[in-house]
């Protein structure tokens, strides 16, 4: 419910819908790269003019929207920002309140070792660890779900030591990706996928064999 999200945030970040409005958080799993992204690039390569992953996600969520011709469906993407420069929605908070992934933050550590350093939080999925992404939000403004029960996300990094290790790795060593394996995972990105996301965005077009014109 939108209300679960709004309840934990300051009014400036609230979604402008009634509390009982139905919403879905959309995650991409490791297999997205082979099952959705590569086929999309092969089929739509001449139409790709901005970030290929964003465009792929946008395409697939548009397809979902078409499945509900009689419903109003509002889509928000993780990369969208408002004129105020604020994100349209806080993806990690949305994933947490939806029960999809646990959002570990500084406040989850009792004996905080970081002093005045800025420490960012990170979501961990019980099956994929950090090998996933939060891509968007589907909102159904005409559907009110008064009786929907909230499920808590699975707390899979439950010890103080592991939480400190997770936040340390994410904040200070995120490039090596070790934080993604803070728990034992069922599936992780392929080597090809790791290489793609490790490549600077401006060079990814060349990696996919897309033309300079498309870029």
TrEMBL record:
Molecular function GO labels: cobalamin binding; cyanocobalamin reductase (cyanide-eliminating) (NADP+) activity; demethylase activity; FAD binding
Ion transport found in the keyword field: no
GO biological process: cobalamin metabolic process
Location (main, coarse): cytoplasm
Protein name, per record: Cyanocobalamin reductase / alkylcobalamin dealkylase
Pfam short name (any one): MMACHC
Organism: Ramphastos sulfuratus
Family: Belongs to the MMACHC family.
Keywords: Cobalamin, Cobalt, Cytoplasm, FAD, Flavoprotein, FMN, NADP, Oxidoreductase
GO CC aspect terms: cytoplasm
CDD domains in UniProt: MMACHC-like
Compartments where located: Cytoplasm
Enzymatic reactions: 2 cob(II)alamin-[cyanocobalamin reductase] + 2 hydrogen cyanide + NADP(+) = 2 cyanocob(III)alamin + 2 apo-[cyanocobalamin reductase] + NADPH + H(+); apo-[alkylcobalamin reductase] + methylcob(III)alamin + glutathione = S-methyl glutathione + cob(I)alamin-[alkylcobalamin reductase] + H(+); apo-[alkylcobalamin reductase] + adenosylcob(III)alamin + glutathione = S-adenosylglutathione + cob(I)alamin-[alkylcobalamin reductase] + H(+); apo-[alkylcobalamin reductase] + an R-cob(III)alamin + glutathione = cob(I)alamin-[alkylcobalamin reductase] + an S-substituted glutathione + H(+)
Domain of life: Eukaryota
Cofactor(s) listed in the protein's UniProt record: FAD; FMN
InterPro entries, per database record: MMACHC
Signal peptide: none
EC number(s) given by UniProt: 1.16.1.6, 2.5.1.151
């Amino acid at each position: 419910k939108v209300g679960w999200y709004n309840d934990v945030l300051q009014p400036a970040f609230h979604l402008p819908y009634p509390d009982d409005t139905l919403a879905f958080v959309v995650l991409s799993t490791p297999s997205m790269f082979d099952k959705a992204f590569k086929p999309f690039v092969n089929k739509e390569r001449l139409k790709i003019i901005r970030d290929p992953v964003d465009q792929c996600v946008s395409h697939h969520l548009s397809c979902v929207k078409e499945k509900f011709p009689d419903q109003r469906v509002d889509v928000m993407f993780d990369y969208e920002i408002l004129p105020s420069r604020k994100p349209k929605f806080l993806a990690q908070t949305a994933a947490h309140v939806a029960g999809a992934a646990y959002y570990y933050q500084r406040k989850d550590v009792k004996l905080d070792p970081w002093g005045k350093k800025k420490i960012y939080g990170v979501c961990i999925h019980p099956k994929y660890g950090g090998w996933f992404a939060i891509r968007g939000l589907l909102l159904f403004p005409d559907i009110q779900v008064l009786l929907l029960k909230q499920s808590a996300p699975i707390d899979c990094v439950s010890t103080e030591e592991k939480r400190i290790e997770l936040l340390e790795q994410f904040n200070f060593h995120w490039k090596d990706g070790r934080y993604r394996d803070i728990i034992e995972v069922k599936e992780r990105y392929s080597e090809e996928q790791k290489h793609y996301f490790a490549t600077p965005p401006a060079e990814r077009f060349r990696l996919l064999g897309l033309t300079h014109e498309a870029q």
